[in-house]
Amino acid sequence: MHDIVIQVLGVAGLLALVSFLPPLAARFQLPFTVLLAAVGVALGAVIQAFAGAAGTGPFHDFLNSLADLDVSSEILLHIFLPILLFETALAVDVRRLFDDIGPILLMAVVAVFVCTFAVGYAVSLFTTLSLVSCLLLGAIAASTDPAAVIGVFRDLGAPKRLTTLVEGESLLNDAAAIALFTLLLGMLTRKSDGGALEASLEFLRDFVGGVVTGYLCGRAVCTLVEPMRDQPMAEITLTVALAYLSYVLAEHYVGASGVVAVVTSALVIASVGRTRISPATWGALEHVWQQLGFWANSLIFLLTAILVPRLLGKAGWEEVGLVLVVTVAAFAARALVLFGLLPLLSWVGLAQRVSHSYKAVMLWGGLRGAVSLTLALAVTENVRVPERVQGFVAVLVTGFVFVTLFVNGATLRSLIHVLGLNKLTPVERAMRNRALALSMDSIRDRVAVVARTYEVDAAVTDVMVARYEERLQAMDRERQEEAPLSDEDRVTIGLAILVSREEELYYAHFSEGVVSRGVMEMLAGRTNRLLDAVKAQGRDGYRAFEEPFIAFSPWMRVASFLQRRFGIHHPLARRLSMRFEVLVAVRTVLRELLAFTRDKLARMLGEDVAFELEGMLVGRLGIVEQALSALKLQYPDYAVVLQSRYVGRAAIRLELADYRTLQAESIISQEVLTDLERELEERRKVLERLPRLDVRFDVAELVRRVPLFAGLPAERVAVIATLLRARLALPGETVVRKGERGDAMYFIASGAVEVLVPNLAEPVKLGTGDFFGEMALLTRQRRNADVRSLGYCQLLSLDEKDFRRLVQKDGDLRTHIQAVAEARRQPAKPVAAVG
């Protein structure tokens, strides 16, 4: 039989074998990775015993194909590792990852070095091999594998934070371990003299270079994927290419860590890809990557485990003793970091506190796996490494990996049970019971409706409804026995639910094409910060975030500065357009949250808590309505255009769904559907373009709005217009500050300002046609009050030199300004004495 056919038979047979293992792992309550390793070792023993023997048939050829497979470390590292890392990183909650970045970096970087030196020095005491060889062994042993641990966590419902800590550590510590391994291997083969400084620089270069390469690759794919919108196969294929390209570019062209590059690129896709990749594709992409990760993890484990009988064939009692030394040293080093350095990190305020139960699980769950076996295989393939060192590393690493898998992995589930980490907290249990009762009540009514629809006998229906009644009564009894939730707990829970629901609604509107990608990214970021505020401070954090949630961003203020100082209008127009869309989206979602609170949370948390939650939502809604009204008053035509754009994008989504339904019902053909989709795509592209908002000012028109200049001849208005400069003041912006030198006065063409005069209980308000800032020019003194914009104000500024020139030429204007200034000086009638 041809070689390629034999190899296909071997890989296909392994995949078929793997497909039977998940149900077996669930049946025996074993981590899937542990079962994989056991099956791989058993398969390796069978191959050792029977491969090459005379015989025919598929099974005989299958064993021979596995015996002849060229399972090299390069194949494992370049084919399977990028997929394995990318899939793990893609599933990570990036925001949660950065919440615990301190402990994660400690375990991913510092723990690698501690483990390397602890294992290296401990083993060197019991062997005559060089210290570098022992340190190389330590670097390989430092790489953890989360596959088995995360599987157990998911089965048992372990706390999300514990899962994030383990996932984050495993993602980044491979990079540190591989970088250190590469340096030590170079020292061992005399390609490098080595040294502590060189090791540090090598690690930093690899890590930083990998981060930069992975980030650039991830951002490039996020840009390239946009033209592929609604092309699932193309979008998913591009992410698969990203996993390999980021690895190869970093490893072979940049000279950095390919592992870090893959992880970074996947984190970029996980954080921003959901808004760049079409919504319909995102769910499919996650499923595809889960499948690829399952294949990669299964094959890399089986292919390395098959080699174990051959690697351990010459092991004796001395090697068994050294494996125990490695095991004790590695876990002692891990315990030192977890129980010694991690509390120190929390004490100085660089990380949140990690409980002792979490640390115990992280200690016992420090399993080793595919990466360690692959690196050990790389040592055995390196002809420059002495043969004695090759055997030493292969045997000890393999023994250590299988001790962690068969001892720690097999007992991790029991440890989590003993520590109670799979149990709900009293608050979580109370919420579970409330949510379940709400669901059971609804299901009971729906069961009766379904029974009537299918004309089920009344006796059967009554039995089914009675079962749900019994469950509801049991839950009521349990709720009466549980510790009551305090009002503060219920409010905090309700706010956390509302914020999470708010983000889901933004994504729903984005999926429907109503909210644009840029606005979605901005709102998702703000919602994440709002959730952090709720978790940290409860209702106070939520209330403190009400105004900042729709406050002007620094970019808006920069755009305003560019327009005011240099007459550059485009950035401000774009920011105002986005602000319109943000306010409309937030208003829509807040109204949906009010209905959600009345319908769901009132029954779940109580009417009193729901009333308080509604009050906070109404407060936010009022702020949004006020900001949106100010924009509409300033730009009414643009508000109409934007609302039309919203409705148009929603209509396109409805049309597309309708057309696809017609095609599914064979009313129209695929060719007709394709033509209709092409037409809709053209209309969608038009609507996706942000409408232009014209903020450029016709100064002459603004001059005519000011009553002071209204009756002047056109030629006189034109002359005055050349002296005045138009600017837009944002709501809440301070136009004039007390104590500043007066260098200009201002005319209000539209809008209103408030003057905060010292010693006045209420600020003085000035509207369209009024002016301010003249006092400092007349008296040549500093400003004596702050002036703040109440809305979007179109102002005309007149600088000091032009002011003096204008009042000298126009006696009536000079008399009017002096009269107003004199009136403002009168203490009995304090009218905005602003200078």
TrEMBL record:
Compartments reported by the entry: Cell membrane
Domain Cyclic nucleotide-binding: 708-814
Keywords per UniProt: Cell membrane, Ion transport, Membrane, Sodium, Sodium transport, Transmembrane, Transmembrane helix, Transport
Main location: membrane
UniProt xrefs under InterPro entries: Cation/H_exchanger_CPA1, Cation/H_exchanger_TM, cNMP-bd_CS, cNMP-bd_dom, cNMP-bd_dom_sf, RmlC-like_jellyroll
The keyword Cell membrane appears for this protein: yes
Listed GO MF terms: potassium:proton antiporter activity; sodium:proton antiporter activity
Pfam families, alphabetized: cNMP_binding (PF00027), Na_H_Exchanger (PF00999)
Listed transmembrane segments: 6-25, 32-55, 75-92, 104-123, 129-150, 256-273, 294-312, 324-348, 360-379, 391-412
Single biological process term from Gene Ontology: regulation of intracellular pH
Record's bilayer topology term: Multi-pass membrane protein
Record's GO cellular component terms: plasma membrane
Top-level division of the source organism's lineage: Bacteria
Protein name: Cyclic nucleotide-binding domain-containing protein
